[in-house]
Structure prediction request, 735 residues.
Amino acid sequence: QEKSCRLSAALLGEDSEISQDQLYELLKYAALGKCHNAAQPSWCRIYHQSHLAGVVVVVLHEMSQLHFYRFYLQFKHLRKVFRHRFTLAPSTNFPVSLYGEGTNLKPQNTPQGLTSTSSECITKSSDLQCDPIIRRYGGKKQGLTSYTLTLEEQRKNGYPIEGSPRSKGYISTECDQQRTDSSPLFGLDCEMCLTAKGNEVTRVSLVDARGQCLLNELVKPESRVVNYCTRFSGVTKKMLLPVKTRLSDIQTRLKKMLPHDAVLVGHSLNFDLQALEMIHPSVIDTSLLFARNEGRKFKLKFLAKAVLGKEIQCEQKLGHDPTEDARAALELAQFFIEQGPTKVAELNLEMLLTAEKLAEVSQNKAALQPQGCGFQEQLNEPPPLSKPCFLDCLQVTGQKPLLLGRQGLDFSGLCQSNLSTSNKQILQRALENVPLSKFSIIQFSLGPEYLASHIHAGLYEKVRSKLTDMLTIYAGPFEENFCMKSVKKEFGRCGPIQSLTVVTETFQPYVCIQYEVLEAAQLAVESLNGAEVAGSCIKVQRPVTATMLDCNVLIKELELDVENEGVIYVAGLKNSLTEKDLQEEFSQLKDLETLFLPKDLQSGKHRNCCFLKFQKTQSAVAALEAINGWTMKGRELRSRNALAPGHLWRWIWQMNHSNGKQGKHIFYEKMEQLSDSEQDLRKKMKKFDHHIKKLYRSLQNNTLCIVLFPGVNSTHGAQSGLGLMGIKDEGRSAC
Prediction:
């Protein structure tokens, strides 16, 4: 009889925050077992791994924990089937951090530039909406004026601006004519040295649109030279000795040479213009044109090789050749304009850069190999690759992973890549192909219209606002001179209080209490509504707002959440009690598996509540009955079923302690558009849930299924990811 696989993970509190390395650990073991040095992950355990029918990873691209809990009610299937959840730190390069680096990617220099040994490395999807280039410029070809920097972009990137205090004394090129898409392009590059004044120009090059050199001149610095920077500039003291040309001469010549509608092109051109002490209104900066995530920039040398197939800044030469660099930047801009953003995005430059780095590491490692006997111990081994790609190992075992999606995930032929044009098409192909593969990566994605920063900021603000309302209760009315200490003591028995204030706008005083955990607020509503507190019979209620109209529905669904099965909340503890003390106190409770004692993330002090997780649901029910009214160290305990899954403690605490300013101005300005977008998002999330439900139902028994919201890095900060996992039929049927 076939053994049933099982997954166990006690994910509460701090232990429920999983790193990319830990997730990689799980995937490697699930896919390979004890072969290839794969070991049981440190944070969870797979029983009978050899009987796993397969591993399916579903990635919801550009989505975070925020999306799951904002649209919690829409994810009906996910929250009822996957009993294990964890918070996931967002990664700058999610595929590499998750699956490991593709060690067999070998770049080659071809007429078209850098490509992989497999043609699949260049993304051929017509739907690259999440590529930073597409997100910035769209997919359609446009004229050159669409790629010139705006005044605000110039200011943000340190360009000399007319009227700016930093540009005082700078000379204008006086190229003030309106630009059109037929305006002439000029490539500009300067080499600098370090003087007593700072960086000063030592050489200037200007090329026209055909790449012909118009200017290539050495310049004598005004101040004493401290460092000629010959390694980079190629300029020596001897070269500058006979030079008479000064900066003012170059400024005059450039003003004469440039037509009034000229567009200057360069790589990080802001530094060149600063060194020239000149202001030019219309520029294309190739370091920004070939956009990357998180403000990172490609080097000119890499772009020239990857895009143009040209080697520049060769090590054999002494320093850079400014004419060569100016021409390379110009040709890169021309390539971008002529081919359009989609063609550029399809080059998949990030992957090519990874390939180049891997090749360099490999070469360095080979160069450092010892030649003679007994010499090895004297050499330090070069640092190993942080993560070998376990997809390589799968191939050795005769398996070829399946990759389905719209994004440019690829592993140089290690996967059966199949890029689709819609999420519906991806689902259809998954239903057909997943049963044939032992390891599958299925990636669904949002459209570009849902990735705008104001939407992320708005979602964050809405979740934070609703969470605040759910943590808040109003109690009263009280007598005029009621005892605040008595009120705080009584309500404090329900759980840790974040703030307590008196409401004076009413005829009789009320108290507004904001708790740190959802269970505390719900316990206060359930146990103290209608009770006598501080000499008054009071009513306890949550705020009545539009977002709170479905609060009771949400509370009920949270209680039924599969992750909260067997977990209870206990309040009224003494703050001085440690986890060890509580383990001893609760040791008589049957089937107690895990105890989590929350603490203030700033002070590190324990709160007056804890969470208990039991192996069996009936044991949790029995414990709940036993604990209510239980006295511990002279204090009466109160308890109820858990509401917030264990992995949310840190996230709720951070939101609860935030000032609410994140993206708030954007949130209010864009309220109407956000409302429309959110309605569409609600439908989209429901569809994702349905897709995963359909896919899950099609899986064989004993299939490990992991659903990942990778997290989002935006201008409003990083949003943590979320992981859900389970083995099909691990004691429960699919909904």
